[in-house]
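seq as requested:
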Amino acid sequence: MKMKIINKLVLILAGFSLLLASCSEDFPEREPSPLPDPNSAVVYFPSSNRTSYELEVEQTSIAVTIARENTSGAVTVPITVLRNDNDVFVFPESVTFESGLAETTFDVTFPTAETAVDYTFEVLVEGDQLIHPYKEVAGAHSIQITMALIKWVKFSDGIYTSEYFGDSWPQELYRAEGTNKYRFYDLFVEGYHYNFEWTGGASLILGGTPNASGYLVQETGYNHPTYGMVSTATDPDPTYTFYHEGSDTFYFDRNWQVAAGSFGWLGDKYEITERY
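struct tokens:
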């Protein structure tokens, strides 16, 4: 009886050994991942880079920021192009960090770009001595940027009236060629433009940043002598902000605000006197 038990144990152990051998054949030993270069420059594109541009036709380039964590010595970084829509963009072959420099820029030009067309490019940094695959950085090893050239052409002359300022003045309205984008240049203060989109109907798509109530907020550029910068929060509801075909007039319902509070809802209007 004991002998039979021993024989059974021998058979079980033998079978288990065969199973282990079979498993080892089915799952070959994995080769360890290569270790990153400890002297890597750790190059990356910071997340502070803009990834979308609307540029006026006079602008001829985009500056892209590139950074590194290891600032020891001078380093030249080749630029690998992953995407170049219609071959519009022209890139430098490389960018150089001088010794001790943590951040620099390079220019991307677009000499053959047409207006009102979105173009995208993507570039990459690669190489064991330049990147560290496991090190967390404030950015990425590649960057994708979309750009469109805008040519603003005069759409109309008109009279702008503001209840907040209690005044009216001549105002030109411009349209981005080939688009439904419109702009009042220097609307309340020089250097502060107001943008919106319009397809010809009553509704407008307003520029600005939505607040918690869904109103579109923009700084006017006007500094109140007591309360500081004044902003407008414009109601996008077409009941209040709209175009009226009969009078050829745009109406804007705005809440005029400062950090300390609100001056209340006051309307603006722009009456077109001549179109081009």
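The mean pLDDT is 90.
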